[in-house]
Amino acid sequence: MLDNLSLIRNVGKFDSVDAGANLGLNRLALIYAENSRGKTTLATILRSLGDKEPLPIIERTRLGGQGEPHIVIANNNGDTAMFENGAWNDSDLNIQVFDDAFVADNIFSGIDVDTEHRQKLHELIIGAEGVALNTALQQIVERIEAHNRAIREKGALITDVMRCGLSVEAFCALEYIADIDNLLQEAERSLAAARKSELIAQRNPFISLSLPDFDTEALNTLLAKSLPDIETAAADKVNEHIANLGEGGESWIATGMKVVTENDLDDCPFCKQDLSGSDIIGHYQSIFSQEYLALKEEISTSLSTLGREHRAELMTAFERNVRTLTENRQFWSEFIDIPEIDLDTALVTRLWRSCFDAIKALLDAKKESPLEAFSVNQEILDLIEEYRAARKGVHDLSNSLVAVNERIALLKESAAGSNVAALEVDLNRLKAVKSRYSDEVSVLCDDYLAEVTLKTATEEERVKARTALDQYRAQVFPQYQEAINRYLNKFNAGYRLEKVSSVNIRGGSSCSYRVLIENTSVPLNSNEVGKPSFKTTLSSGDRNALALAFFFSSIEMNADRANMVVIIDDPMTSLDDHRSLTTRQEIKALVNDVNQVIVLSHSKAFLCGLWDSVDKTLVSTMKISRLGSGSTLSEWHVDQDSITEHDRNYLMVSEFIENGHEVDERAVAVALRPILESYVRVTCPSVFKPGYLLGPFIGHCQQLENTAEQILNPDTRIELRALLDYANDFHHDTNPAWQTANINEQELLDHAKRTIKFVHI
Asked: What is the pTM of this model?
């Protein structure tokens, strides 16, 4: 409980006020203040103390004051709440304030209820426990938002080029593939084949290569052949003779020997001479025997076979085929694996030609000397072996290429029926997998997925926190609706609230409700022009009653209300007499439920009525008085100041309205103008000063209408003029016959009601 206001320095109207140190604050503290004396400032100080929010005090730093705001408030437990250097100390007080700020922050502003009102009303309804649950939920929501920001930032590091066009989520979710390089190559080849299906269909498979061999065994056999029965000397003579005959001589002799036989040597076929005695004929018979001729024929045949099997056009065809194979390999290797063609055709050709020339030379020599034995020397054999090694390489390459033809056939078949778009998708996905698990990108994806995992865990926390809050709200909101309607009933309000509930919005939680008037449900806001809503169906008095109902309900529903200090600033604004009485009764009841109640008001009648109704041992009083250009705190003697002339006039007119004939009608008529004057003096103290008359004041107001200095709006000014015109009939300074002026009770009742209503505007 607050014990006293020890010091208020450099805040609002308070310069350096320490008089409050001697003015104790009881369980019920009543503080009276005229308008503009500092009542709202004092309520703001206490609100700031409860909220630990320094800004409202800093904003009210005294203009022209010396130094910073400094406030000291003593508590009855020995602690002291202190504001200095722009902040409150660590004092812990449960303070709840009802004032214009409470209404504007939590209920409505003017005639509108916006989103922020409903959000703050939600906190008011759910109380400390619910606020803790809601705060926990909002903290989790903020963590989720932080996760979302981190996910966006980390996702942005994984560029579209890295992702191959996939979304970040889909990209990071790709599974690892061990054989990705081979699969990627196959996919690229399949796509390339699909795009070139027509060329593939037209391209031939690989042809085989072949090179002839040299039969060295048969060659050696032929070269070694001889006719051992023929003497060399005889052969030399025959050869010499044949050489002398010139070209064709050997053939001529060989033909002739077919004519001459061993048994017929008597007659030369050419000259008819006897040949039996010729030595050379015997040599001819030896040389040109069947064996000799067969050997010569075999040598010639071997030469012919060599020339045929190793003709030059075969080598040209070989080189051409190798070029064709190379071109085909370049084409097909784009789609399938093809052995490399690493073939030195020039070397093969040179070896081939060298072997051919060497063997032909041997055969030519043998042909010239059939009887002479020849052999293939080692140099030629080595050359042939080198050629055979090259030939084997050619044949092996040919076989490996021809073996690919089966795969080429399958490729032709698959390319003909392939779907290019589907293959592009498959290839792109494989490229994405390779990129996803590269060293650089893998780190980025792991970081991204770790953040997503954290967010998922936090979202699970949010579900639990929201469930706990929803369960709590499902219990609290119906109870709160019942409490509000109970207070509205006490205030004799012509409406009730329905569907008081909690809704979740992006900014957190919000309260929603509807006003039920004459069994008609009216929304807080209406988007339809001409449709009833909160601002069109509730008067200012109804709205203030609703604000009080919310406030009293929030205290009633607060489990810690026994430790609460309640501050109420001018609660009866726009309330009629019945609601003012109900408000006093609720404040009186509140004194028994909370730790302390402090009521501030500019209405002595309201405060005096409250003072009269409570145990005087529980109540303390003080007032905010003028001190030079500022204000101070001083003692207020309620018993001496409880009834004023204005109070008497007001009560008399109110009683006339209620009871009629039991009140002096002329006295009521006379009281109307003083009531109006008192009201205007309080509401417009800087303009309507003591001694100033209402007539000139109204004229002054009319002159300032529709300007920045407007005092009253036109409707209010017109109503005041009408009331004054009636009231002037009963005053001596405006009607010399005021004491005998005729009074019509119905007319008086109408103006009495309008006057009371006017001073409640």
From this structure: 0.50
